[in-house]
Amino acid sequence: MIHYHGTPIKPAEAAVKSLDGRHALIPFNDPRQIEIAAEVAQSFILDNAAYVQWKRGITVDWSRYYQWAEKWLKHPGCDWALIPDVIEGSTEDNDQLLSEWPFGSALGVPVWHFHEPLDRLRRLAATWPRVALGSSGRWAQPGRPGWWNRMAEAMDAICTDGQPQCKLHGLRMLSVSIFPKLPLTSADSTTVARKNFRDSEWRGRHQPHSAEIRALILAERIEAFQGAQRWEGLPQQLALELNADFQLEATT
Fold first, then answer.
1. Using one digit for the tens of pLDDT, what is the confidence trace for 60-69?
2. For the chain, which domains are there?
C-alpha cells in the first residue's frame, strides 16, 4: 500500500527529511512544497483541496485547478490527481464534474462520498481503474462507529471474495487504526504535517525536539503498517465495540 503524506510539512527541512524516498500529497490550495516532492519523493499526487474549500465555505474555480494539474501530471513522479468533487453534493453534481475532467481515467481519480448511494460506488468501481473513498455527511469523521458500519456496506458492495473491483484510495484514512483493516491500494493524511509541531504529542526526556526528526518518526510509524490483503468483514472485536456503542446510543 502507498502512504501519501499531506503537505505542507513545516519547516521545509522537515518536509525534505520525511518525504525523501516516500510519497506525498500536494493540495491545490497550498502547493508550496510541490517542488520538494518532485525532487525527493518517490511519487506524489495532486489534491483538488475540495475538503479545505468545503470547510471554509469557499467556491472553487476548477479551471485554475485544471491548469495547475495539466502542468504537474506531466511530471514523471506524479501518479494522478483527484477529480474535482462537491463533498456534500448530489450524485448529479459530482457526475457532472466527472464529465468535465479533461485528462482521462489514467490520470484522474473520482471520489465516492459516504453519503452517496452505493449504486454510484458500484458504477464508479466498474468504470474507473481507481476510486477514492471520501468521508461525508453523518459519516464525515473517519474511524467513528457509524463510519465503520458505512465502510462495511461500501466494501461489501464492491468486493468479490474480499477483493475490490478496482483500486481504492482512502481519503484522510492514513491512521493505523483504519487502513490496516482495509484492502486499500493507497491512503493519505496530514498526520505528519499536523503533529510534528504539537509539543503535547511529544513528552518525556527522550522525546525528540527537532521538527525534522519528529516528522521522520511519524512517517516511519505510519509506514510500519500496511493495508489488508482482502476485505474479510469487520474484525470481531471491532464489531463488538460498534454494537456496544450502538446500544449505548439507543438508550441515551
1. 789 999 999 9
2. 2-250 (3.20.20.105)
Residue 91 CB-half CA count within 13 A? 10
Q: What is the pTM of this model?
A: 0.91
- Three cell numbers, residue 197: 509541531
Burial class (CB in 10 A: 0-12, 13-18, 19+), 223: middle
Distance CA 82, CA 45 (A): 8
Of 207 and 183, more confident: 183
Give the range among 36-40, 87-91, 158-162, 189-193 with minimum mean pLDDT: 87-91
DSSP 135: -
Burial of 166 (0-12, 13-18, 19+ CB in 10 A): middle
Q: Encode burial over 84-104: b for 16+ CB neighbours within 10 A, e otherwise.
A: bbbbebeeeebeebbeebeee
Query: What is the average pLDDT value for the chain, to the nearest integer?
Result: 90
Q: Name the DSSP class of 179.
A: G
pLDDT score for 207? 74
The dihedral region occupied by 30, where left means phi > 0, alpha psi between -120 and 50, and beta the remainder, is: beta
DSSP 3-state of 45: strand
> With the C-alpha atoms ordered 108, 95, 133, 85, is the resulting torsion angle positive or negative?
positive
Beta bridge partners of 26: 46
The closest of 76, 48, 31 to 171, measured between CA atoms, is 48
Dist. CA 114–CA 227, nearest whole Å: 20
